[in-house]
Design a protein that fits this description.
With about 150 residues, the chain is an alpha+beta fold. Helix content is about 30%, strand content about 15%. The N terminus is likely disordered.
């Protein structure tokens, strides 16, 4: 049996996060210097494994309407999906619709997750940069892997 080790953030990713004030290294949302990106980070408590998304979904009023990046984590704490949004509240509410109305892949991801975290950033461009960085750092299984034409089969 092999155990997948969690890759540490690359020096480039840590430097980029430090320069931009992103909360890359901390699950609770405080970044380098003890400050969160744009002053706001959210986290939903972890429920028991295999629980219904309705038991761990955040209240709509708790989610900010600013641009940001969100992460879904599984029961082991691994990041399984990273996404960005211009309006976090509007985007995250799409994941908590009735399960039958979700696409099969999205439904599988939501059922695999047991918490969601978000980090508010200053603009949609910063959200794009942070999403790209986190996808490289965490290598989430539900994010699409982009390949160039030289390595794609």
């Amino acid at each position: 049996m092999t155990v997948a080790a969690r890759r540490p953030a690359s020096p480039y990713a840590r430097r980029l996060a430090r320069e931009r004030g992103f909360a890359l290294a901390s699950v609770t949302g405080t970044g380098p210097g003890g400050r969160a990106s744009s002053g706001m980070t959210g986290r939903v408590p972890t429920p028991a494994r295999g629980s219904d998304p309705a038991t761990w979904k955040p209240k709509s009023g708790d989610i900010p309407t600013q641009p940001g990046v969100y992460r879904f984590r599984d029961a082991a704490g691994r990041v399984i999906y990273v996404g960005k949004a211009i309006n976090l509240r509007q985007r995250l509410s799409n994941y908590f619709q009735p399960l039958r109305s979700l696409h099969q892949r999205t439904r599988h991801m939501v059922l695999s997750a047991n918490q969601v975290e978000w980090t508010v950033v200053g603009s949609d461009f910063e959200a794009l940069q942070l999403e790209y960085t986190w996808i490289k750092v965490f290598d989430p299984p539900f994010n699409v892997k982009f390949r160039d034409d030289k390595t794609y089969p």
